[in-house]
């Protein structure tokens, strides 16, 4: 679901607070048919919820709001940007800064153990828990 570049860009715009079709279209300069397909994919996948709204005097339209699963993807996009900012920095600096809504302090993505202590990526060991069987 996340493999298409437009999908990640739509999610980024959702995290910036965009929720309406026209907002996504204008921000991304994406064709209407591609945007419609990507939004449907994200709704079907439970990442966005399609919610009707009406501006007085106009027809019903839909907003696309992040679900809990969608909000959880903020970690993923944050980790990707954090990596890019470190290893492929832009001359003008990061395009997005994430800060705590409560304190305003800068945030970063990290691995935490079950006691809440940070573990550096080089000390994280991945263990396979499911063995896939190919047909």
Automatic annotation (TrEMBL):
Keyword Transcription among UniProt keywords: yes
SUPFAM superfamilies, A to Z: Winged helix' DNA-binding domain
UniProt keyword annotations, A-Z: DNA-binding, Transcription, Transcription regulation
Database matches in InterPro entries: HTH_HxlR, WH-like_DNA-bd_sf, WH_DNA-bd_sf
Highest taxon of source: Bacteria
Domain HTH hxlR-type, residue spans: 1-92
PANTHER family: TRANSCRIPTIONAL REGULATOR, MARR FAMILY, TRANSCRIPTIONAL REGULATORY PROTEIN
Protein name: HxlR family transcriptional regulator
Species assigned in the record: Lentzea cavernae
Taxonomic lineage from the root: Bacteria, Bacillati, Actinomycetota, Actinomycetes, Pseudonocardiales
């Amino acid at each position: 679901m996340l493999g298409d570049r437009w999908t990640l860009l739509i999610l980024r715009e959702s995290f910036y607070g965009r929720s309406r079709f026209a907002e996504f279209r204008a921000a991304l300069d994406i064709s209407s048919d591609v945007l419609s397909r990507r939004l449907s994919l994200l709704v079907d996948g439970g990442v966005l919820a399609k919610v009707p709204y009406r501006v007085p005097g106009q027809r019903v339209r839909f907003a696309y709001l992040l679900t809990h699963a969608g909000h959880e993807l903020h970690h993923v996009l944050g980790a990707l940007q954090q990596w890019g900012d470190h290893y492929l920095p832009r001359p003008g600096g990061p395009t997005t800064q994430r800060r705590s809504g409560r304190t305003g302090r800068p945030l970063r993505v990290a691995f935490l153990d079950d006691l809440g202590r940070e573990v550096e990526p080089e000390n994280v060991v991945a263990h396979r828990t499911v063995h896939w069987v190919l047909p």
